[in-house]
Amino acid sequence: MTVNFEELEAEGLSKDEMIQYWIWDNKSWQPHKFVQHLHLTPRLLQQWWPLKDVHGFCLKICAIYATVRFGFERELAEYLWTKWFRPGETPCRFGNFFARYVGSYRPECPKTIADLLDAHRQICAQVLLRQILLTAHDDKPKPSTVDDRADNNPYEDHENYILEATFHSIFIVMDTSPPTKRHPADRDFVAAAPVLLVRTGEYHDLRTGPVDFAPIQAVSEEVDGNADIRRIALGDAVDFLLELHRQNCVERSIYER
Questions:
Q1: Of 184, 169, 174, 191, nearest to 245 (Cα)?
Q2: Residue 135, phi then psi, degrees to nearest 5
Q3: Mean pLDDT of 221-229
Q4: DSSP annotation string for 146-177
Q5: I need a surface site. Which of 47, 80, 214, 237 has the fewest CB within 10 A?
Q6: Does the pLDDT value for residue 62 go beyond 80?
């Protein structure tokens, strides 16, 4: 969609409001990117990723690893968008979103929490390493070979692509399939989907210190005697993570993120 910013400016909209107008009218973009997920195969973890895939993990509150095929990724993406996005407040310029959705349901993909923790740490390590290298060498391609616009050039503004502190510290595992029979208008099944919330033990970048599950004690339960894993409804997990991110995020303008 093409937005006429001169017309919006003539109507008295500020720069912030014009950017958010474009984002709101193009909101299908984020759910579209969300459902085009990676598969957490051993080959993926062993290879050097394209920079666009590296940046796909940046500016996300958490990762969602699906060990079974959820089957309603579009509804899931729309639900997360509705919970996360606030017009005029939520930064979106560099692909910010609630989560990076990663498929781990193929036979060769990790399924246990221990294996997912190891994979998650490998992902964080590669993203951080690539950003260190880019910052050190300012490794941008020549404009003659790559479109120099920020939307199409992943090297442009690479310093803005960071891993959120919450992304290091906690992730969601979708390990159960939703009911196959339901009313077409029903969207509550997404929020009610049982998921696992997993603490990684990494919390040094969190202002609030180690992730505390006390706020969700009443709506979740410990799994297999492991204090770092809670069984919880997705909607409650999303609310918990949004608040955790609010307490720990670095405040920036919507143009800086």
A1: 169
A2: -65, -40
A3: 97
A4: S--STTT-TTTTGGG----HHHHHEEEEE-SP
A5: 214
A6: yes
